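Justification of computing resources. Each target in the renewal requires a structure prediction run like the one illustrated here; the chain below, 86 residues long, is used simply to show the kind of job we budget for.
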Amino acid sequence: MDFSKFSDPEFDVKEWVNAALRAPRDSKTSLDVHASTLVLKLQLFIQEVNKSLEEISQQAVQNVPRIVRDVETVRHEATLLKDQMQ
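Resulting structure tokens:
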């Protein structure tokens, strides 16, 4: 299943659902089973996205102290440079 369409700003949910349900499937598979399979795949995709967001958020939180130190260092150096130029 191609999930790249979800990031398109012009993504139309209704159109995607209709196309997904019209997609060719095994003749033995009922529409309900096909829809349930799609829902399961979407749920798995959501779990992957949530995990990725959680990892990125954790990295950002871990980087905040270092960034604060770097900003403080740059501020201190700017103050020293300003004093030297006077």
